[in-house]
């Protein structure tokens, strides 16, 4: 298969979808890999390293899209890429369709095959291609939150871990999944007092067993959230519903309950955000203030640590890329139920329920689409 890796052009997105090691593995299996010049520069991988691994370098993004059967990316295509996408071209990347109606309609109109990292799902309901970036984002949420608690950035002026004689900050984490668990562990490691909320009692029992002593678990509901936000210094939104919009757990009126300088970090921003006043920001301009509450809502947080993120992402995606390249997307999705769940939009049809529900679009059964591909 002919595989193309364009340079990411989203604001301050320094990750790349494939490392030189990944290129070498694909080449060993007989596939052709085209990499856009300087695509790996932000992650610390030179063009020479890619060439040494067997990649062919192309200077422009137009050439990459023009030649590739499968495009591997990190972030969803942005508007200037839409016209480059060909009918029946396979795109394997994070899409988060439920948070962007224009992107959804653009991919439907282009007739592309959109296989989303975030909805590839194992039998145990885990999301193997979200896990590495969730681990990075969960840890970064605390790192960034601690920074924006400082007074020069309009925070409360609190050191997360405190010092002898001074109480540590109070951190509230909403969601006990990968992001929430990593955030809680990171905050606890820095000495903060952490409250970790989730709606699943079995999950809370597990977290209570494995978390440090300065992490308390609590059932997530509106009453408890309203009470906890009054005292929290840093609030991390870490809620995910695979392929669908995140629910608003922190509502607009709750901001009035918070103390001035409280910091909100919404890791779910690329799924619409679980904080109602959240709107996507960038690494260039990461925060804004509403009711004296600092909002940090960067939609590609792991892009700030691109070397770590790129290597972690390729470790997770490469086995699936190999299956798609070796078998073609149709056969690979028939053989692997995890990959089949990654299909969101195929040949102008929405085949993932969360996306169809988000924008009130007709849903076509993915099995019907795969059967049609056989007939074609």
TrEMBL record:
What the entry lists under SMART domains is as follows: AlaDh_PNT_C, AlaDh_PNT_N
Name one process (GO BP) from the record.
Answer: L-alanine catabolic process
Molecular-function annotations in GO: alanine dehydrogenase activity; nucleotide binding
Start and end of every Alanine dehydrogenase/pyridine nucleotide transhydrogenase NAD(H)-binding domain?
149-297
- The chain positions of domain Alanine dehydrogenase/pyridine nucleotide transhydrogenase N-terminal read 4-137
* Active site, UniProt feature: 96, 270
E.C. no: 1.4.1.1
One Gene Ontology term, aspect cellular component: plasma membrane
Q: Where does NAD(+) bind?
A: 134, 198, 203, 220, 239-240, 267-270, 279, 298-301
Q: Which InterPro entries match?
A: Ala_DH, Ala_DH/PNT_CS2, AlaDH/PNT_CS1, AlaDH/PNT_N, AlaDH/PNT_NAD(H)-bd, NAD(P)-bd_dom_sf
Q: Which reaction does it catalyse?
A: L-alanine + NAD(+) + H2O = pyruvate + NH4(+) + NADH + H(+)
Query: Which residues participate in substrate binding?
Result: 15, 75
- Kindly give the PROSITE patterns that the UniProt entry links to this protein: ALADH_PNT_1, ALADH_PNT_2
The alphabetized UniProt keywords are: NAD, Nucleotide-binding, Oxidoreductase
User: Member of which family?
Assistant: Belongs to the AlaDH/PNT family.
The entry's protein name is Alanine dehydrogenase
User: Which classification does the entry list for the species?
Assistant: Bacteria, Pseudomonadati, Bacteroidota, Cytophagia, Cytophagales
Q: Which gene encodes it?
A: ald
């Amino acid at each position: 298969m002919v595989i193309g890796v364009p340079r990411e052009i989203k604001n301050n997105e320094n990750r790349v979808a494939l490392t030189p090691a990944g290129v070498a593995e694909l080449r060993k299996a007989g596939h052709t890999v085209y990499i856009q010049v300087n695509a790996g520069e932000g992650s610390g991988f030179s063009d020479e390293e890619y060439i040494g691994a067997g990649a062919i370098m192309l200077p422009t993004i137009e050439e990459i899209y023009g030649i590739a059967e499968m495009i591997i990316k990190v972030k969803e295509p942005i508007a200037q890429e839409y016209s480059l996408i060909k009918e029946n071209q396979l795109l394997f990347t994070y899409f988060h369709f439920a948070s962007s109606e224009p992107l959804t309609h653009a991919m439907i109109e282009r007739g592309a095959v959109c296989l989303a990292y975030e909805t590839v799902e194992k039998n145990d309901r885990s999301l193997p291609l979200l896990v590495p970036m969730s681990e990075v984002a969960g840890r970064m949420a605390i790192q960034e939150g601690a920074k924006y608690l400082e007074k020069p950035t309009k925070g409360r002026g609190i050191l997360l871990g405190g010092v002898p004689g001074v109480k540590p900050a109070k951190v509230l984490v909403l969601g006990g999944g990968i992001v929430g668990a990593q955030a809680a562990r990171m905050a606890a490691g820095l000495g903060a007092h952490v409250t970790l909320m989730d709606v699943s009692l079995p999950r809370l029992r597990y977290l209570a067993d494995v978390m440090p002593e300065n992490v308390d678990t609590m059932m997530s509901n509106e009453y408890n959230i309203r009470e906890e936000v009054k005292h929290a210094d840093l609030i991390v939104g870490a809620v995910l519903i695979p392929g669908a919009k995140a629910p608003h757990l922190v509502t607009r009126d709750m901001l009035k309950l918070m103390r001035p300088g409280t910091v909100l970090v919404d890791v779910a921003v690329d799924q619409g955000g679980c904080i109602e006043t959240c709107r996507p920001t960038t690494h260039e301009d990461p925060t804004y203030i509403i009711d004296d509450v600092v909002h940090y809502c960067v939609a590609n947080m792991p892009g700030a640590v691109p070397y770590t993120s790129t290597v972690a992402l390729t470790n997770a995606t490469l086995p699936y890329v190999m299956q798609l390249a070796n078998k073609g997307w149709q056969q690979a999705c028939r053989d692997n139920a995890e990959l089949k769940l990654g299909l969101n939009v195929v040949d102008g049809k929405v085949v993932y329920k969360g996306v169809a529900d988000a924008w009130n679009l007709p849903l076509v059964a993915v099995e019907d689409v795969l059967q049609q591909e056989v007939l074609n």
